[in-house]
Amino acid sequence: MPSPFYEKAMSQAKLPYTAVARTSQEMSNQHVRFAHEQHHSEAADIEESELFDMPARPTDTMEAADNDALYYAVSLGARRRTRKGRVFWVTVLSLVIVSVVGMIWLYFDGISWMQRSKKRNVILMISDGFGPASETMARNYVQQINDLPIGYKSPLDEILVGSSRTRSMNSLVTDSAAGATAFSCLIKTYNGAIAVADDKLPCGTVLEAAKLQRGMYTGLVATSRITHATPASFSAHVTHRDMEDLIAEYQIGNYSLGPVVDLMFGGGRCHFMPNTHANVSCRMDARDLWSEAQAAGFHTLSTRKQFDALDSHGAAKSLPILGAFAPSHMEYEIDRDATTQPSLAEMSAKALGILDAATKKKNAGFFLMIEGSRIDMAAHTNDPAAHLRDIIAYWDAISVVRKFVDEHPDTVLISVSDHETGGFSTAKQLTPEYPEYLWNPRALEHVRHSIEYISYKLLAQPTNDLEGRYKYVRDTVFADWMGIKDAKYAEVIAVAQETESIKLRQLLSDAISNRAQIGWATHGHSAVDVNLYAYGKDAHLLRGNKENTDIGKFIADQLGLDLGKISGKIKTDRVVQGTRAIKETWLGRRDLDALEHSPSTH
């Protein structure tokens, strides 16, 4: 009989057998066969006839046969184990090589490639000059005037995720240019810089990178001049924000990258018009950028009728689009004539429709920046009613964008301010005595016009008829436009006699703010942290207290952008305007008093 060692060896070699003789008699009547259950090739180098086709033998020869079978079984098992071991280590080595190469690829370009291969929409909304106290003021007003529950939440309250720090590179109190550049270039720079670093070299923006590196469509929507600091910081590179003539040249593609903005809605037509058009131009040269834009393929709009005629699908085929609906800034919401200018919400909805249609059948999405620009300008004037109405208009735009995000889960909305303006508070001490704990939202309810509008109208009144001016202030300005029925003689005569713009605006601000018991610390900006809101794809990543540069980094990471490569391409582009820039005496003054912003020119 076969020895126990023989069967053990056969078992260790994992070679099943079905016809091993159990007795010498059996061996003399049949051949020993192994059932080949594994690949035939593994035993192809050993002939079955050599091993197993044995002639019938007498019992006394079986021990030799057992030894032969044992030798070959052990030999075959060893070969198979060697071959399997070799395959195992080759497989392990291959996996290690693939893993290392994969990690290197992911580190250098793989993650960005995966991000670029996914369709994403990023909508950055900037509420210029809008601080936390302003959100409280607007919420209190809407809740009280409309008799809403105490727990009422605004469209922004519902998506609050954190706060943003606002300082610039050279000051704890930033301006809009440095603040927006933190979002667009991911860097801290000096106040006044438009997408340039502290060495005054251009820095690539998330908008430019989204266009060139991902093939995304891009857009800018603002209620300021489209050449103003915030939209400019995504689409131009100049050493100072006042160089709006050069900014306009950038925006229509007159630099090394060519046109990178597909859609622009806002004001500021004056910086595109030659100075030969005196009533509608604020350029310092005769260059006609409006015509140059048209020649470069831009579809240009300047009226509400043209805006309304834009069909999203048709307009998507007409990109790029430049819509400038006012010579300078668009009107405050409190002054806006809906028949001549679209609202921020309307421009946002139209932009979303056009960009969505343009990207419908494409793998790349769009980047859109929307700014509620005039929230800031009202705060510069310490105008609580205009500030309030523009905040509510911004809420309307937020609601429009949130609805879009709900319908497009590949989209993220970020809403943040570049800074706070006015040192605003919902409190004001009016007497030396201990102050009352209250503020009065209803004092703002019947204000019908901005201080900008009112001051312009007042300054246009004849100065040689004090009695006529007094009646105009008492009956039209205070009673009709400001809703003030209890004006004292001293208030009325002070406004009637004043002919200097800044002082006049301060008197009007005091008249409203005192009655509402609203406080202002400055006509400039403050260093306070501002609220950060986010909604949609990966919005949770923005939770907490962030630097303003983190907002831009979030966008770049989401889209897999390399801004350094863009910076390298534009490092020799011109950043200084050849003609004199229109300089502002203080932030806001030119914005209020310039001829091109006169209501009569709109």
Automatic annotation (TrEMBL):
Record-linked CDD domains: ALP
TM ranges: 87-108
Family matches, as SMART domains: alkPPc
Binding site for Zn(2+): 128, 376, 380, 418-419, 525
EC class of the enzyme, as a word: hydrolase
Domain of life (superkingdom): Eukaryota
Gene Ontology molecular function, alphabetical: alkaline phosphatase activity; metal ion binding
InterPro entries listed in its UniProt record: Alkaline_phosphatase, Alkaline_phosphatase_AS, Alkaline_phosphatase_core_sf
UniProt cross-references to Pfam families, sorted A to Z: Alk_phosphatase (PF00245)
Binding site for Mg(2+): 128, 228, 230, 371
Official protein name in the record: Alkaline phosphatase
The organism of origin for this protein: Coemansia aciculifera
